[in-house]
Amino acid sequence: MLPTTEFALLRRLAAEQAGSRAPSMVAAIVRGGEIRWSGVRGFVGDAAPTADTQYRIGSITKTFIAVLVMRLRDEGKLDLSDLLDKHVPGTSMGHVTIAQLLAHTAGLTSESPGQWWERSPGNDWAALDASMTGDELKHRPGARFHYSNVGYGVLGELVARLRGTTWLAAVNSEILAPLAMSRTTPMPTAPHAQGYAVHPFADILLPEPAPDAKAMAPAGQLWSTLTDLARWVAFIGGDTGEVLHPDTLAEMREPAHVEDGDYWTSGYGLGLQTLRDSGRRIAGHSGSMPGFLATAFIDPVSTTGALALTNTTAGVAMGALTGDLIRLVEEYEPDLPAPWRPMAEYDPEMLALTGLWHWGPSPYVLRLKPGGWLDLAPMADRGRASRFRPNGDGTFTGLDGYYAGEKLRIGRDAQGVVTHLDLATFIFTRTPYDPAAPVPGGVDPEGWR
């Protein structure tokens, strides 16, 4: 990046590390699937940290579990509306759905019963299951968002049962190995940072424990590096390789819950946090464990993302830091749009469909896009717009907004001439309320007057 951009980024990182009294901190900017800038501050032992220094990433672990669950869904091994009891029978939580567990709307208690799991040696699944009595179901499933670490312990067990292996083995074989994330592990491997608590009234440190959480490990066990986590940020932005279809990743980024208010600023999708920040929507996850804080977010539209890792228990505004890093990049070096170029080929029949259509009296414009996609949008600012992807059978599936998932069909007369568009029972005609088209309810025989 430009020297002015790099200095501004380093200045923001340095101010956070010094002002928050963090023992060490590393951060990076990801753009277009690559690290474009990285910075380090502080010390790990007697040396500065590097891009290969491991930090604990806490709840960012949940995003890996969510990807495994979505892979199982895409393979047809489960449905998100399935009750847990279908796949993990006999628990007190069997009445909640897989989707509710992913989105933290299942109503489960936030922490596992007993001692605080993040600082205590973990127990196996049988012990966790036995501890989840009726008292640990805090809300009616689906009623509200209630962040639950337990829910991801449950999802880890779900993955293990459907894969016939451990959740960690599934993460290694299905995600880490294909993405070449070799420095992401369940326990630290050198070089790694020690986690600390910083005394609130003196510049002294207290080492924090990092036990194996076992059954609760899917909620926050993993350690990673700047390099590995940058690859994961690119993944969340849509650079999924062969691990997950980009459409499935986009589905995960869609908010299933949003912060209550007139204008939502934060929400949660299927394993991913979503935020509104300076007019953009970014997705990712934050993480905290005793001695560590982590955050990783990306704007899928611009493919600009930021991540930061530090080895302190509290006191660092990690979300504000990554948000500021993204804003600085967009301000100092806004991404240039790709050059426009004409389509290499097109279907003349599809070209004939383009132009003006009407839903009732409201005019819409249909445009042909590369790959045979269609774009339908109102001529005025008001109305429902969507892109449509061809299905290969003459129909199209909506991808956005109100029409997401709905079918667009081409209506023809007995001679095969196109007469109308049928979109989820809404009839679009070349002229407003064309009497020759099957307009629902018919058209007044006396016509316009």
TrEMBL record:
Residues 347-430 form the DUF7586 domain. Gene3D superfamilies: DD-peptidase/beta-lactamase superfamily. It holds the Pfam family DUF7586. SUPFAM superfamilies: beta-lactamase/transpeptidase-like. Residues 14-329 form the Beta-lactamase-related domain. PANTHER family: D-ALANYL-D-ALANINE CARBOXYPEPTIDASE, D-ALANYL-D-ALANINE-CARBOXYPEPTIDASE/ENDOPEPTIDASE AMPH. This is CubicO group peptidase (Beta-lactamase class C family). It comes from Labedaea rhizosphaerae. The lineage of its organism: Bacteria, Bacillati, Actinomycetota, Actinomycetes, Pseudonocardiales.
